[in-house]
Structure formats: structure tokens, C-alpha cells
Amino acid sequence: QTLSAITSGETPSNKTFVVSGTKIENISISDVSAGWSVTPANPSLGSTVTISYTGDATSVGTKSGTFKISADPIHGSTLSTTEYTVNMSLVVNNKVSTITVNPSSLDWGSVEIQSSGDEDKFVDVSSDNVDTITVTSIPTGFALQDMGTFSPVEAGDTIGNGASLLVMLVDTFLPLGLNSANVVFTATPSANSQFNGATTKTLNLRVSIQGLTTSLSISPTNVTDDLDQNDVAVAHEIALTYDNLSSISISGGNANKYRVSTTANGTYSNTLSLDATATNFFVKLMNTSSAGTKNTNFTISGTKSSIGASNPSNVTLGCSGVVNAVAT
Q1: Any bridge partners for residue 298, and if so which?
Q2: What is the pLDDT of residues 254-300, one digit of tens each?
Q3: With the C-alpha atoms ordered 109, 110, 114, 115, is the resulting torsion angle positive or negative?
Q4: Which of 25, 57, 64, 87 has the greatest count of CB atoms below 10 A from its CB?
């Protein structure tokens, strides 16, 4: 006799059977296993017998028992067997453990790098048939606070069922572009419970980090020389102004026209590379031995730093030189 399976903690349902037979009397039920009930003890032929489980319905597993049913033959009759042993069983299944994270994702949208953070957000963590919930992972740049205790939550901490958590973006010095990472919650099932699948839930956190605006300018943007043949040209200082750049490059020089240098009396070349500490450079007309126009355009370009949004537009330095012929 097998009773319908139950989940741990539920009340088992009964099972019945009807006593049948011919030419028997004095029917008796005896030796009922502990934790079981079989009634009535002395049923009549054709009556209903009820089997009940009265034992531990909490612990998981198969509950087994037996009882004996016997009868006497009516006078003049013979029974081949006067007693039967009847097996009884009931399966107690695990309760189902669940964990829910609501919402399952939080998005801060676009945030500028190195800014003071952004709006705080909230998430609720609930569960059924769970003993503990542990926050096993918190991504860099984010922090949690338990709104029930107003205490910070660190990786490895446990939280209560139904916890409401404040989720904060606390560090915007993250890689540029989309940053997506997960807070991981790991649950331990309570006694006589188990998960149908993974014991973890994730809260996805997303933020798009935008770089800082870059800029590059020079002053002056044009230089002019009007010299006689074989005059000595004077170096022109060009001031640099820029934001969020890692380097600056200058190109376009000509050995017979204009060239650039890091110092007024330094070595001049067609190109120049400067780091992010430079505040100026120098441009100079290189050849006055031949008469004519010595115009040159330099291209100044900047490379964004690690926190810059993009490279700035190139800047042009226009150099206009005239060498006048001298009669000999």
C-alpha cells in the first residue's frame, strides 16, 4: 500500500482499501509498524480500512512499514493462508529552494569618468526554503548597503531573507566604454530542501564610462618673417594649450623653409614629438641664403590620454617667410 508522495512538512493523505474474501470471519489487523495507523483493527468483510502515516513527515526519504491482516475460516471451510503481511510506504520529497533578485539588472547609463558618481539604486533579495544568502562577489567600482541595518555589505557577508540593498556606483575611474559585471548571491538550502538548478543568482550592473573632452590649441597660429638674404632668422615661440592628452606630434617641416624644435637654440627638425608636460615649442626659418617665398604649414595633432574621450581635431600652424634678394 503506497500513499501519495508529499513535500517535506506537508500532511500525508490517507489511503483506503476494502476487505474482501469468502467464507471468512474474525478479521483482525495487528502488528502495525510505529508511525503508522491502520483502522479499524477488526474490520468486517466488505468494510473499508484506512491507512494513515502518523510519523515524521519532515525528514526526506521513503517511510516504510507493515501490518498483518488475518482471518478465521467459517466452519467447514479451509484457508490456504490465515495471515498476510502488507507493506506500506510513503515518499517525503525535498522542499524546493528558491532565490529571487528583483530587479535582475541595474543600469546607470552614461557617466563621465572621474565624476562624483551617480544616482543610487535599490534591489530586493528574497528566498524560500533557504538557510543563508551570501554575497559572494561585488564588482570593482560598486558598493552595497543593507537598508535594514544601514551597514555596508562586503563580499562574503550574509544577508537576511527579504533584504533590501542600496547599490552605489562609488568609483567612476573604470575603463572607458561599457562596463558590465555581476553581483553574485549564493544561497544555502534549509533542512530538507534543495534547489532545482543553480544555487546562485546574479545582479547585473551596467555603466557606460565616457571619457573627458579633449582639446588642443596653439598661440599664435601664424608666424611671419620678412628677411633679406643671409639674415639670421629669429625663432618664434608657439604656446601650447591642451586638455586630456598624452602626447602631441608636429609634422610638415622642410629643411629649406621652416622647422621646429623644443628649445629656441636647440636642434631643429621636420617633425617633433612632445609629451603631456610640454607647454611650448619653437619654429624657425632655416634657410635665408636664397631669395623667395618660404611658406610652410605644420600639422599639430594630439593623442588622447587614458581618460580622454577622443583625439582632438588637428591644428595648423601657418608660417609665411619671404627672403628678399640683395644686390651684389
Answers
A1: 317
A2: 999 999 999 999 999 999 999 999 999 999 999 999 999 999 999 99
A3: negative
A4: 57
Longest dimension (CA), the chain: 162
C-alpha cell at 29: 489487523
Burial bucket for residue 143 (CB in 10 Å: 0-12, 13-18, 19+): middle
Q: pLDDT tens digits for 6-30?
A: 999 999 999 999 999 888 899 999 9
Q: At 241, phi and psi to the nearest 5?
A: -130, 130
Rounded Cα distance, 236 and 234, in Å:
6
How many Å apart are CA 282 and CA 231, to the nearest integer?
Answer: 18
3-state percent helix, strand, coil for the chain, nearest multiple of 5: 0, 60, 40
Q: Which residue's C-alpha cell is 510506504?
A: 89
CA distance 80 to 74: 13
> What pTM did the predictor assign?
0.75
Q: What residues in the chain have per-residue pLDDT under 70? A: 117-118
CA pseudo-torsion sign 264, 269, 271, 272: negative
